[in-house]
Amino acid sequence: MLHRGGGLTNTEILEFDSLEISGSQLSNEEKVFTHAGAVSSREGINNSTQSLDDIIRETPGAYTQVDPSQGGVSVNIRGMTGLGRVNTMIDGVPQTFFGTSEEQGRYHGGGRVSGTSAFGAMVDQNLLVGVDIERGTFSGANGGNALMGSANLRTIGVKDIVSKNNIFGVMAKYSYGTNSLGPSYMGAVAGKYDFDLGYVGLMYAYSGRKLSQGYKIGEDETTIVPPDPNDPNSSIYAFNPQSLTQKPVNQLAKLELAYKTHSSTLQYRRYDNNLAGRKLIGNNYQINYRYNPNDILDINLALARNEASQHYNENVKIMSTPVGNMKGITYNTATMFNLSNTITSNLSQNLDLRSTFGVNFMSNSYSKSLDWDQSYSSNDGSTDMPGYFQYGFAPDGKQNIKTLYLDNAFSSNFWDFSLNLNYVFAELSTIRQGVCQDFNAYCSPKEAGAFKKNFNNFNISSMLAAKIHTLFTPFVSYSRTYRIPNVQEMFFSGTFNTSSDNFQDLNTGLRPELANTYQIGFNSFTQGLLYEDDSFGFKAVYYYSHIKDYIYNQNVINSDNFGPPNYGENDFLLLPLNTKAIFSGIEAELRYDMGFFYTKLTYTHQNTDRQVSQSEANANGSQASHINLAQSQFSELPEDYAVLDLGTRLFNQKFILGSRATYTGKMKRIDPSAFMPDNNTRPPANTGWQELWAMGTQDLPSQPIILDLYASFEPFRNFIIKGEIQNLLDEKYIDALNSYNQTMNSTADPLAMNNYARGRTYVMSFSYKY
What we know:
Elements: E1 20-21, E2 24-25, H1 28-31, E3 38-43, H2 52-57, E4 62-65, E5 74-77, E6 80-81, E7 86-90, E8 93-94, E9 98-100, E10 117-119, E11 128-135, E12 149-155, H3 158-161, E13 168-177, E14 181-195, E15 198-211, E16 216-217, E17 221-222, E18 249-259, E19 262-275, E20 278-291, E21 299-312, E22 329-348, E23 351-369, H4 387-392, E24 397-412, E25 415-432, E26 449-466, E27 473-483, H5 487-490, E28 513-527, E29 535-558, E30 572-593, E31 597-609, E32 640-650, E33 655-664, E34 668-670, H6 677-680, E35 690-692, E36 697-699, E37 706-716, E38 719-726, E39 761-769
Parallel strand pairs: 7-12
Antiparallel strand pairs: 1-2, 3-11, 4-5, 5-6, 7-8, 9-10, 11-12, 13-14, 13-39, 14-15, 15-18, 16-17, 18-19, 19-20, 20-21, 21-22, 22-23, 23-24, 24-25, 25-26, 26-27, 27-28, 28-29, 29-30, 29-35, 30-31, 31-32, 32-33, 33-37, 34-36, 37-38, 38-39
């Protein structure tokens, strides 16, 4: 059975039993075809010339949000993203950072894009060896408050740097690309001393890169165009490529110890970047310990602490408020504790049981520091009241989640069955500084002061697989998963406040999301299918997820029986609400390798029925209808997408030549015209006391198939030269789920289409391991 051990070590999130077929050891990418369920794995990330976004997007059912202003990676699984909807981890530790970037424009938009907000994992791909993705099911601690699935990014360790039987190792990589891509570099050193019953190892790695948005798009055009193509005198560009040029620096240190039945790892990871008007700093500390003397005791302990902050540069504005002059800083601190024990037993001659019982605690807090004496000192002289900003920008709050979990994996010669259970106790709390307005029927109590809300839920993930044949192992699964609201959903207040009243409007009755997910599929894996040393793997899955109390946000308008609401009199609230959503689709993955020739194919089809959030529109400005700060991002997957990779290995596999084709089907964005109909007019009043504005979607132009060509050569052992031509035909295309796809200005007119992806780009990389 597939064992995923509760978020403890680099390998245990998606740990496969040691498996050899025909005497050859399988890679993680091959092992997924021998196990039931919608699981995928990608290796060699640190040596790839592709971006981390592209690598994850090659995985069926998975995608990423592309946000040039955030710097981290934001994983999307089956059309859902963000903390809790997808449990994104680094070395088994959930990532909780929530970033907010500066506005690119002037007061009330000025035609430029707004700032964005998003969850993300702050790490450089040069430090990653692989990623494991699980969709629709869960196990261990990674199932606590995880609605749709999980993704675990694994960092390099001592054994990745020091070769077997050596005591010292060096790993180095340098790459450079045309079209504002690069340079990118990484250096790592490690020492390892083996003794009779264990080893001790120490490593340190340093990495950095430069990435700019001032690139040329397809057809040799520049990506920066005037926001109004009908105005030849326009000099206001959609965004400033200088502020979207980033040079992140990463550091990673690990101490590994193993003696007899004990093993432990201590690690420290640091992230520094300056992007979109602020300095990003991340410090991560982690301890893992394992004690495994026998089948009855396999104790895993993990302690981790993540500290992240954003320090805003001078003159930065957010929600038309001078955050930079206010010396704005946001903080996120998350602490995790996990303890589990695994028991492996033989119940009968043909039946094995592996049970894991554990407890997990997660404390996650958000806060900010602002000098309010500077709140009106904006450069252009604007003096908007900061009331909506005070509770809309980086909401303060704390999230405590306690999870008890029990995993059971039964295995026989003919079938496998897993039953994973957990019970979650959660609490959301904050100190409310303002009161709710009288007409806000969603808020109770309305008073300011300490506020706390508790949640309890029971989650289940079960799967049955029949071992009919190596080429046909069908499986079915059912999961029931909850996600409590995030601090940003629960405590964000979008009240448009032009009076001196201090309103902090909430939906105190916001309910957690509940997903019922059904999956049916089959695996295939064999070696020697056509030739003696070849390998063939195939996996196909159909899934259906019904989500009760799906969380979205929308403007709520205060209207009376005597006419339309009065502009600027606290009429607008942006509140989180609950509804239902349905996600269904097909995922398939094929891999065939015969040594001198290989091919990989992934395909995803998804149908989505959900209510989009108003904040996904990323509207700019400070008017009441635009108080959203892009608190959420448009996350609907393309209707279809596929990647085909073909290649050949020559000269004793020292030379590799391959090509990759990426197909993206019908994709959407928020329809800007649906945001404020009739050019800034309001819906007419009716007999009700409030009205809701609904957002719509708009189809984007059809996209061409993007072709890449790549080659690698190993002139001597462990020294590899790679070259790649990305977007070989220099096609002009749009990245799906680019955060700037949704941008509109203050009159709700769509901006010029300026979010095209890179045109033809040449990349060279050199890597060496000693």
